[in-house]
Automatic annotation (TrEMBL):
Protein name: Uncharacterized protein
Domain of life: Bacteria
Length: 140
């Protein structure tokens, strides 16, 4: 696929991320629907399919389908927003599963960036946010 297509998809995912962030407090159901919609435009096809995967299955799927780490990075940002929403809703079981996948994705993306000799300033803040959410979850 041409690189322009990937850039368009990443830009579109960024627009959706901004919409989710703006709606997560006032309209959490709409924000969750936006997240579900994003997954239909990925190789995962549906959010339910993504949710059904264990971290080992997720890793195998990512490798088999050659999901680019930049796509995974945007999806990780969306998963953080979903975790925030679901934590506020008291859906702790779902939050724990999301945080496990987020932890895996952060490590996976970091490894791929290292292989590609790409320096990202996002991993540190993502790890901090993950730790904050884990702490918040265990206080609940």
């Amino acid at each position: 696929m041409p690189k322009d297509y990937f850039l368009e998809m990443i830009e579109e995912l960024g627009r959706v991320l901004r919409a989710v962030i703006s709606a997560k407090r006032s309209e959490p159901a709409r924000a969750l629907q936006e997240i579900n919609t994003v997954f239909t435009a990925t190789k995962f096809s549906t959010k339910d399919f993504f949710d059904s995967l264990s971290t080992a299955e997720l890793e195998a799927f990512i490798k088999e389908q050659d999901v680019h780490y930049s796509t995974l990075d945007v999806l990780t940002d969306l998963l953080f927003e979903e975790a925030d929403i679901r934590l506020n809703m008291g859906d702790y079981v779902t939050v724990e599963a999301l945080l496990n996948k987020i932890a895996f994705l952060i490590t996976y993306i970091s490894n791929k960036e290292s292989e590609a000799k790409v320096l990202s300033l996002k991993r540190g803040p993502q790890k901090e946010r993950l730790n904050f959410l884990l702490t918040s979850l265990h206080k609940s």
